[in-house]
C-alpha cells in the first residue's frame, strides 16, 4: 500500500518511524508521516528518542574536520544580521562572571587529548607540573570556595583550608586517576558553588566569608575564583599550543574593576604608599571604559569623571589583568601614560605583587 | 565513569549565555563544535561548499532560536548532530546539491570507509564501540548509507539490492540497538 493513501489516523509503523527519525523518506512521504505522528504523542516521543539517539551516535563517531577559517566570520556576520547581540555596557554580576568562566574552562578541559594532560605548564610557580596538576589545583580551590559557602562537593575529601596545603592533598588523591575525574569534580564543585550563590542572590554578595587566610566579601572571593580559573585556563592553552582567550567583555569589565581596587594593596606590598593620589585606568578593549582609583584606600574605585587625576594609564583590560596574574611582565605591558609617569610606572611595576599560586 | 550521554552544567551555561544574546557564547559554541558540525555535514554532503552552508545555517539558527535546545536532556554535541543531519539531508535532497554531490561521490568512490567501520578500526573504546561490535554488518551498512550519506531507504534498498521493507527494518533494528545502548534522553523541539 502506498503511504500516501493512508488516513491521518493510521498509526505509523515502527519501520517507518525509524526511517523518518533519520530523515530517510522522500519529502512527500515524510510530510505524510509527520501529519500522522501528530495524532500520537507516544509516537512523537519515540521518534524524538530515535532521532536523538542518532544524533548522539553521530556525536560519538564522527571525527571533527576543521572548516576553512573564513567560515567563522561569515557565520558571525550572518548571526549578527539575524539577531542583534546584547552589548556589554555594564559589567556582569560576580555570580555570572564566576559561572561563565568556570563553564568556559570546563569546556576547554573536555576537549583535551590524552597527550595534552601530561604536557608541562610554564608559570614558574608550577615547576614540574602538568596540565592535569593544574586542573587538580583548580578542583582544590573551587571545592574550598564551596566549603566556605557551606556547601559540600560530593567526592571531594580535602579538608585543608590553605591554598597550597589543599592542593597537595588533592594532588595526592588524584595521583594515578584518570584526568576525567578531575574535570568531573571541577564541574561538580562549580555547579554546587553556582547554585549556592544563585540561592543567596546578589544581596548577600557583600557578606564576608573565609578567604585566603582571612575574610573577604563573597563578591571578591567569587571574582578571585573566576579570575584564577581564567588565568589557569590560559596556562593550559599555552601548554597545548592554543591561543590565549579573553573573557567576554561583560566578565572582563567586572574582573578588571575589582582588580583595580587592589592596586593600593599591590603598591603596599612593594612598600609604596600614595594616600590622596588618584590614578585613572582607561581600557582600550572595553570601549574606553575608565575608572579612577584612589591609591589611599583598597577598593576605592569609581567611574572616571571630568576631574583631574595624577596619572592616567591607557591599556587593554585583559593585558592589565594578565599583568596582575603575572602572566605578562609589566615591562612588556603595552600602555600609554598621561600625567605623572613615575607614579604610573610604580603602579604598573606593582601589578603582579599579589600574584600567588 | 558513566558514559551515558547527558547534558552537563558547563554546556547548560553556554546555552544560557546564548539565550541571553551574548555573542561571545556563539563564538565559544562555534570554536568548540564547528569541526564536528562541518565534519558531519561534509560526510553527508561530500561537497565542501554545501557543507559550509549547512554549518553556517546550524550555528545561525541556534543563535536565532536558542530556545530550541533543551539542555536538560542529552548532550549539546548530540543535539547539534541531530540538527546538522536534518539540514544536511534537506540540502542533499535539493536538486543542485544532489547533482554536485553525486558527481563527487562518483569521483571519490571508495575513498572513504563507512563511519562505523572507521570506529571499529580505531582504538576507541566504550559504549559506541560495543554497540557497533554487536551490530550485524548488514544493519550497519544500511545505517551508514541512510544516516551518514543521506540516502533514502528506497535508495538504500536499491544500492544493497534488497526489498524496501528489508531496508527499513534494518534501519529500525540498527537505530533501536544504538538508542538502547546510548540511552539517549535528549528532547529536541521539532523544526518542521
Descriptive labels:
heterodimer, A: 357 residues, five-stranded mixed sheet, two-stranded antiparallel sheet, 51% helix, globular, B: 192 residues, mainly alpha, 10 helices, 0% strand, disordered C terminus
Structure description:
The complex is a heterodimer of chains A (357) and B (192). Chain A has a 5-stranded mixed sheet with strand order 5-4-3-6-7. In chain A, strands 1-2 form a two-stranded antiparallel ribbon. Chain A has helices at residues 14-21, 27-37, 41-61, 70-82, 94-110, 131-148, 163-174, 179-200, 218-239, 249-260, 263-269, 317-324, 341-350, and strands at residues 208-211, 214-217, 278-283, 289-294, 301-303, 311-315, 336-339. Chain A is built from 13 helices and 7 strands. With 357 residues, chain A is α+β, with helices and mostly antiparallel strands. The mean pLDDT of chain A is 91. Chain B is mostly helical. Helix content of chain B is 71%, strand content 0%. Chain B contains 10 helices and no strands. In chain B, helix 1 (9-19) crosses helix 2 and helix 7 packs antiparallel against helix 10. Chain B is globular. In chain B, 54% of the residues are buried. At the A-B interface, helix 1, helix 3, helix 4, helix 5 and helix 8 of A face helix 1, helix 2, helix 3, helix 4 and helix 6 of B.
